[in-house]
Amino acid sequence: MMHYHTEHFNLLIVEPSEAERALYSTMVRDFGFNVTIFEVMTGQSAVDVIKQNTFGCILLSNELPDMNAQLVLAMIQNGPTLSIPVIVLTSTDLEDLALELMESGATDYIPKNQCIPLVLNKAILYALARAQYRKAQIDFQKAEIKSIEHELLKERNIALEEANEKLQQLAMRDPLTGLPNRNYLKQQLEQTLLHAERARQIFGVLYFDLDYFKYVNDTYGHQVGDELLLAVTKRVKQVIRQKDVLARIGGDEFVLLIDDASEPAFFGIIAAKICRTLRAEFIIQGFELHIACSVGIATYPHSGKDYEELMKNADSAMYRAKESGRNNYKFFSVEMNMQVDQQFAIERDLRLALEQEQLELYYQPKFNLISKEVVGAEALVRWNHPSKGFLRPDSFLEIAGQSELIIDLGDWVRREICRQLAQWQACGLELVRMSINVADKECAKNRVLQNILDQVMHYDIDAKLLELELTEETLTKGIRNEITDFKILERMDIQLAIDDFGTGNTSFQCLKELPIDVLKIDKEFTRQLASNAKVAAITTTIIDLAKRLGISCIAEGVENEEQAAFLRENGCEYAQGYFFSEPLTADNFALLLKKSSYTDNKQLTLQQS
Question: What architecture is domain 9-139?
Fold first, then answer.
């Protein structure tokens, strides 16, 4: 008989018959396998011994006293035991049974009446070979997976490095212009600070933004605005040195960091160049755009000795440049810093004033120049400051207008006017129209319409008792985009007046696009009526224009009879000013409503009753 020698393996025989176990053992040993044989009689014993030993092959009888082969297969084919080849010995040769056994995980099956040495040992050899092939296949797959994982890890590391590099660029660069951003600027400025401190050198921070950029965005769209920012970047780069750091820190705000200058005057020269180059027209998508810029300059060590201080002071200087007429530059100074601190203090106190009812409305009457009757009033806010006393609007309104505080203040004024009108109405007074000044930020936030609707409904007053006054400067900042709101207000019979008419640069465009009801002649025109023939001619032209448009005309700032007479003789219908009456408290204005007219040739005098 031919003998086959294999690597050593453990063989488990699961058979209840002792005679058959002995027969199978003899067949296997005679065949020459290098084998250790384990014998058990039940399925549970097989499961237990398999848990404690490693087997290369299992001979499993289908007829066991406690369970059949399929149940044994189900119990041992968990986790790592899946790789054990199992040959099932059956008492019948049924095709259906064979199929079920193979589907349950058996490697092979042999009917017991056909289990001769050649058949049995051939099946064992096949099972061992199949298990070895499967192991080799698994090892190969593991090696291949490991290789793939290594390559994937390598590619992943490369991708991570590239992603980190891109993230670093995004963290330090403005995505639109490609310029350094605020993060990069801070890093670079702090390095420059260290170098300048050691070398005892000066350097400058030039902070600038674009005047009227919001108007460009609102009128022509953000795509044109973005292209304009790119064009601005290109122009500024042409007038600075390559080593200077130009950064975009947000919106239309830029900062230029200039080091190793010999004297502060050099920063002024560069600022003037930037103003000049940006003043020239831009052609973007066929549109001819005109902008300007205001530049604030802070120098080290004179204007600050760290990043925050230098940036803050350069920003303050930029706003000083704007206040000086725009398209210019200003250096920071200690005096300017004190002014900024005072502004912050006023803004803080004004917030408290809104909460603590320190504000009060005064009413400057408007009169018909022919009938001398009271036809309305302009509401003017006054501040009863707890420590500074009685404050007029010129001491705090401009500061409020630089922040969102102006919106809260506008809400308060409209609410207070509507409340006062309701109170006067309840007292039986004959009411007149009240004018309310509106700031550009209120319109830009779509705040005015909703607030008026809320207050009119809450206090149950007639909306036609209200008039909104907007300056031409407000309209130049893009408020014409809110024309829908103004159309709704018009349908509510709320009048719209252009304040300081003739002093802006879009007068006729406003008249064309908006439902204007009233033109207000600026007080500067009124003041110069007797002394300046050109101003007088302009004033009569405004009056005539109002008549031709079928709208009202009112002059403000009337201070003497001569001015009143000129306006009356040239057809101006209405006027307001100290000649007729100073702004009155609510109680005094109520007395005026009862009197309903003014006395010629002298300022109105009211007696308490």
Answer: 3-Layer(aba) Sandwich (3.40)
CB 413 within 8 A of CB 361: yes
> What is the structure's pLDDT at 78?
60
Chain centre to alpha carbon of residue 43: 71
**DSSP result, 368-424:** ETTT-BEEEEEEEEEEEETTTEEE-GGGTHHHHHTSTHHHHHHHHHHHHHHHHHHHH
pLDDT in the model for residue 170: 64
Query: What type of residue is 547?
Result: K
- Find out whether 57 and 84 touch, Cβ atoms under 8 Å: yes
Buried residues in 428-449 as b, exposed as e (16+ CB within 10 A): eeebbbbbbbbbbbbbbeebbb
Tell me what pLDDT residue 472 has. Answer: 76
Region at 596 (left for phi over 0; alpha for psi -120 to 50; beta for the rest): left
Rounded distance, CA 381 to CA 394, Å?
Answer: 10
pLDDT of residue 475: 65
At 399 the pLDDT is: 79
Q: Domain-by-domain residue ranges, the chain?
A: 9-139, 182-332, 344-595
What's residue 597's pLDDT?
Answer: 59
CA distance 294 to 271: 9
Structure confidence at residue 379 (pLDDT): 96
- Determine how many CB atoms are found less than 10 A away from the CB of residue 306: 12
3-state secondary structure of 352: helix
Extract the residue ranges of the chain whose pLDDT is less than 50. 1-4, 79-81, 478, 600-609
- CA proximity to 583, closest of 567, 568, 603: 603
344-595 is classed CATH 3.40.50.300: no
Question: Do the bridges between strand 518-521 and strand 552-555 make them parallel or antiparallel, or are there none, so unpaired?
Answer: parallel
Using the Cα atoms of residue 598, residue 600, residue 605 and residue 609 in order, give the sign of their dihedral.
Answer: negative
CATH number of 182-332: 3.30.70.270
Q: 215-230, pLDDT tens digit by residue?
A: 898 889 999 999 999 9
Q: DSSP letters of 291-320?
A: -EEEEEEEEETTT-SSHHHHHHHHHHHHHH
Strand partners, 13: 39, 59
Q: Which two tokens stand for residue 524?
A: 């500067």
Q: How far is CA 413 from CA 28, 350, 378, 396, 419, in A?
A: 107, 14, 11, 15, 10
Strands (E) located in 446-533 = 466-471, 495-501, 518-521
Q: Are 494 and 448 in contact (CB under 8 A)?
A: no
Tell me what pLDDT residue 462 has.
93
Question: Whole-model pTM above 0.85?
Answer: no
Per-residue model confidence (pLDDT) at position 524:
92
Nearest alpha carbon to residue 303 among 208, 206, 209: 206
User: Strand pairing of 57-61 and 35-40?
Assistant: unpaired
Residue with tokens 């080849």: 85
What pLDDT does residue 506 have?
55
How far is Cα 278 from Cα 210, in angstroms, rounded to an integer? 9
Contact 527, 561 (CB under 8 A): no
Residue 280 DSSP one-character state: S
Distance (Å, whole) CA 59 – CA 578: 119
Q: Looking at residue 68, what DSSP letter applies?
A: B
Residues listed for the chain: 609
Token look-up 């009888």 returns: 61
In this predicted structure, what is the pLDDT of residue 504? 64
Predicted pLDDT at 308 = 93
